[in-house]
């Protein structure tokens, strides 16, 4: 019998699977697992952050403080990434956009006042600029006014 046809080479890697994994895993590690060590692994040491209510800073410590204040106010907060979009290339870097949702119970004092015991939903968008496999900039926006209204509702 004739020899079997040669096995075709594997398809090239899907770039989507390469560039949506970093932001998804980073958001999970920071928000759900509270693993702030990922800031030194996935982020450039001098990354910039811009967020809601004019929060803006450089480097990991202030970002970690923001995340810890949210997890203190909502200890059971769980975030899920709903959609990821990206564009770019290896030479110029990548821009990603993640639409996410989170839910938690306001049982801790802090940024949002004394605990209310109320469940709250947060919807947000985070964008990353990734160069050479490191996040060099992050922009985040979430429904902070709506969050405060949820907590104040009678």
Helices and strands in order:
Elements: H1 15-19, H2 21-32, H3 38-42, E1 43-51, E2 55-58, H4 60-73, E3 78-89, E4 93-105, E5 119-131, E6 134-142, H5 144-152
Parallel strand pairs: 1-6
Antiparallel strand pairs: 1-2, 3-4, 4-5, 5-6
Could you walk me through the main structural features you see in this protein, from its secondary elements to its overall organization?
By secondary structure, this protein is α+β, with helices and mostly antiparallel strands. The chain is built from 5 helices and 6 strands. Strands 2-1-6-5-4-3 form a 6-stranded mixed β-sheet. The longest helix has 14 residues, at 60-73. It starts with 14 loop residues before the first helix and ends with a helix. The model has no long low-confidence stretch (mean pLDDT 92).
Question: What key attributes describe this structure?
Answer:
single chain; 154 residues; alpha+beta; 5 helices; 6 strands
End-to-end Cα distance, whole Å, is 80 Å
**Number of discrete helical segments:** 5
Q: Radius of gyration from the CA trace?
A: 19 Å
**Order of SSEs, N→C?**
HHHEEHEEEEH
Uncertain runs are none
Task: Kindly state the number of beta strands.
Answer: 6
Strand content of the residues, in percent? 35-45%
Helix content: 25-40%
- Which shape, going by the Cα principal axes? elongated
Q: Structural class, please?
A: alpha+beta
Q: Give average pLDDT, whole number.
A: 92
